[in-house]
Amino acid sequence: MLAVVAAGVLLIVVVLLLWYLLAGRLKEPEQGKPPPERPTSQPASCPDVQMISVPGTWESNSNDDPHNPSSNPIALLLNVTNPVSQQFDESRLDVYTVPYVAQFSNPIAIPPDGQQSYNNSRSEGTARMIEQMSSRYQECPLTTYAIVGFSQGAVIAGDVVSQIAAGKGPVPADLILGTTLIADGRRTNQPGSDQPNQIGTPPPGVGAEVSLNGLNVPGISMTGPRPGGFGELAGSTYTICAPGDLICDAPRDALSPFNILGSVGQLVQAVGNPVHALYNGFVVDADGTTATQWTTNWVEGVIEGAPHPAHP
């Protein structure tokens, strides 16, 4: 009888261990390797500005074309990148939409939903963004960057920009023209010189990762606020959050990590909540400007004011 119980316990331990291993751990972004000196000119093939767009959950895939994304024709940030790309020629602007798996598996789904875990998805998106920026910087050291992210993509973009501000990213901080994050899951809603500018009337809640800080179940690691915020780049960083969007407007400390099943269930539901899908119509100012219109206007403005690097 004792042997049967021991075998049962061993089986449970093995199953739990495999669950955690297969779901994946969150990988820390790797630091870029910038060249030691910046030249006074760069190749004519280099764009003046590199725009980086990081789509949200279910709005990309690993094999999507970064210069002609088509995996989700109604992806939110296409409402920004399409009009912006039409305003500038290739010598002035290159728009790169980060291709990554962009999924969020429900770890308590029975049967399993067949998707990649949040940790695996977020890690891949971060690695792809850093890889593109590192590669561009090595080839084009005077190119500047405008960055936008939505939902899971906002978490990814915000994490990379935070690292850049701390001097640990793929490009120097002075090359970042600005960043706009829509529905950022690590939104703190706190004042401070290292925090981003909030566009529109900020709702009272915080990002889901801040609300659920410390929750760690297979494939989902909630990492809380970004250490150091956005540092010297906070002044050029913007955040937009619609009231009732649980991804960025979750109750403060309301979801107890001790209630794992309930917390995970609410988090998974938050990814697909109706408010989260309506930013193309979410008005952020008295002129009736929507979140995507504001972001488009902002990006066009920073590109128009960006430097024109010399060519040999």
TrEMBL record:
Write down the SUPFAM superfamilies for this protein, in alphabetical order: alpha/beta-Hydrolases
Q: Which InterPro entries match?
A: AB_hydrolase_fold (IPR029058), Cutinase/axe (IPR000675)
Q: Which Pfam families match?
A: Cutinase
Q: Which organism is it from?
A: Nocardia callitridis
Question: Which classification does the entry list for the species?
Answer: Bacteria, Bacillati, Actinomycetota, Actinomycetes, Mycobacteriales
Q: What domain of life does the native source organism fall in? A: Bacteria
SMART domains xrefs: Cutinase
Span of the secretion signal? none
Which residue stretches belong to region Disordered? Answer: 28-74
* Residue ranges with Low complexity bias: 60-73
Q: Which UniProt keywords apply?
A: Disulfide bond, Hydrolase, Serine esterase
State the family it belongs to: Belongs to the cutinase family.
UniProt protein name: Cutinase family protein
